[in-house]
């Protein structure tokens, strides 16, 4: 699948792991997007940039980094620094699969009270997410 930023200065191709969409309610995603970000997991190593002169990567935590176009500001991906896990902004795809499924909400304990999604999803707290990534990094060592 192909995707890009709003202005077209950053273009990529990627292989999706599945069609499950995840929502992040963490304070960084909410500040970065003025809402939530909806992402989809990609196959490890499949995110390839075809045009990347304006791709920037921000080290957002001890174990994660965010990619964005430094011309238009489009959020493109979040990945672990070891690049064992990566997801992309589902709306950066040129065409979304027809069978997308809103599957999970993470950092649910950080979600403001004034909004909620109607459908039922798996819900992970900040502690759940941190434990998940700490367990994965321990498995790698």
TrEMBL record:
Pfam families: GFA. Keywords: Lyase, Metal-binding, Zinc. One of its GO terms (molecular function) is metal ion binding. The keyword Metal-binding applies. The keyword RNA-binding does not apply. Residues 1-108 form the CENP-V/GFA domain. It comes from the Bacteria. InterPro entries: CENP-V/GFA (IPR006913), Mss4-like_sf (IPR011057). Belongs to the Gfa family. This is GFA family protein. It comes from Acinetobacter halotolerans.
């Amino acid at each position: 699948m192909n995707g890009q930023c709003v202005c077209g200065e950053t273009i990529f191709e990627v292989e999706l792991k599945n069609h499950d969409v995840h929502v992040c309610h963490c304070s960084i995603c909410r500040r970065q997007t003025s809402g939530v970000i909806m992402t989809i997991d990609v196959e490890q190593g499949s995110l390839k940039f075809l045009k990347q002169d304006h791709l920037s990567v921000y080290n957002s935590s001890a174990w994660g980094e965010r990619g964005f176009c430094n011309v238009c500001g489009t959020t493109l991906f979040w990945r672990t620094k070891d690049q064992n896990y990566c997801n992309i902004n589902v709306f950066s795809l040129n065409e979304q699969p027809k069978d997308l499924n809103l599957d999970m909400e993470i950092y649910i304990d950080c979600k403001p009270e004034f909004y909620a999604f109607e459908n039922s999803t798996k819900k992970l707290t900040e502690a759940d997410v941190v434990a998940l990534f700490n367990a994965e990094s321990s498995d790698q060592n």
